[in-house]
TrEMBL record:
The keyword tRNA-binding does not apply. The chain crosses the membrane at residues 53-75. The keyword Iron does not apply. GO terms for biological process: intracellular protein transmembrane transport; protein secretion; protein transport by the Sec complex. It is found in: Cell membrane. Keywords: Cell membrane, Membrane, Protein transport, Translocation, Transmembrane, Transmembrane helix, Transport. The lineage of its organism: Bacteria, Bacillati, Bacillota, Bacilli, Bacillales. Coiled coil: none annotated. It comes from Sulfoacidibacillus thermotolerans. Belongs to the SecG family. This is Protein-export membrane protein SecG. GO terms for molecular function: protein-transporting ATPase activity.
Length: 77
């Protein structure tokens, strides 16, 4: 059962990293660090998938922590 939980943890970790990398950044690149102005293309960015990806991130992160607690419980008992 412990090996199943560890395999599940690896799968959840890969999914979590992938979903986080698919999200668009809040700062819109290095121009925001130096105080650069708003480019023409940045204001027309498609934000249709961002709320869905944020929700998926929350669910996968919750599953990640539940699996970690499950593994810790199995190891200690």
């Amino acid at each position: 059962m412990l090996s199943v939980a560890k395999i599940l943890l690896v799968i959840i970790s890969v999914v979590l990293v992938t979903v986080v990398l698919l999200q668009s950044g809040r700062s819109a690149g290095l121009g925001a660090i130096t105080g650069g102005g708003n480019e023409v293309g940045a204001s027309r960015r498609n934000r249709g998938t961002d709320p869905m990806l944020a929700r998926i991130t929350m669910v996968v992160a919750f599953l990640f922590f539940v699996d970690l607690i499950w593994i810790a419980w199995m190891v200690s008992h």
